[in-house]
Structure formats: structure tokens, C-alpha cells
Design brief:
The chain is mainly alpha-helical. It has six helices and two strands. The protein has a two-stranded antiparallel ribbon with strand order 1-2.
């Protein structure tokens, strides 16, 4: 999948849109206001238009208000971004990424979850 990487603002908008499903700019704006009371409707609308142009969103124009949908599922986009990050920052080594993440400090709960996942994988 060759997709333009979303900017931090675009990724923030996608994090809002993914659980909502197909939505208008107004609906996305209302949802984003809950965490970011400073965000304006015009900013959200313009960002969604740019994202549509970049291929990050699809747009259904059959309604009075355009309905936008994420062009890529969350897991698919995250996997693509992670692969790119691992290649650029860790010379393609997933092990180096994991070790760096572990060194940066994780909670006991997170460590237990990771150990459980690794045990499941062995079985």
C-alpha cells in the first residue's frame, strides 16, 4: 500500500473518524470538540477536504452534506506507518524497535501483557 503519510493533525482526525464511521465534517467537528475545544469547524472541514485530495478519505457527495469515510482501515494504516518508521528509524529491525520501547519504560501491567502475548505465540 503506497499511501501518503498523514500529518499529526490528519492522524488526530482519523483517530476521531475511525470509531465514528462515515460522518459529515460537522459530526467530526462536534466529536473533536470534546477533547479540543479550540478546534473550529472551518479547520476540520478544510483538513477533511485536503485529506480527501490526498486519498486518505473518501467522500460521498450524494447527500446535501458530504459524508467522509477513512480510505484505509486503522490497522492497515498503522501497519504501513509502523513499517516505514521501523525502516527509517531502526534500519528495518523490529527487535531494535521493541528494545527501545522496553528501555523507555513500561508499566508492570504492560510488561505482563507483553509476556502473555509472547507465551501465547510460543504455544
Amino acid at each position: 500500500m503506497s499511501v501518503q503519510k498523514p500529518t499529526p493533525a490528519e492522524l488526530d482526525l482519523l483517530q476521531t473518524l475511525w470509531p465514528m464511521g462515515p460522518s459529515t465534517a460537522r459530526q467530526v467537528h462536534e466529536q473533536m470538540l470534546k477533547d479540543r475545544p479550540d478546534v473550529t469547524y472551518s479547520t476540520v472541514l478544510r483538513l477533511m477536504q485536503i485529506m480527501h485530495g490526498k486519498g486518505l478519505l473518501t467522500r460521498d457527495e450524494s447527500h446535501r452534506s458530504h459524508v467522509y469515510t477513512a480510505a484505509y482501515e486503522r490497522d492497515s494504516l498503522q501497519t504501513n506507518l509502523l513499517k516505514d518508521f521501523v525502516n527509517r528509524a531502526f534500519a528495518g529491525s523490529a527487535k531494535a524497535l521493541v528494545l527501545a520501547a522496553l528501555k523507555s519504560g513500561i508499566s508492570k501491567k504492560e510488561r505482563a501483557e507483553i509476556e502473555a502475548l509472547l507465551k501465547e505465540d510460543k504455544e
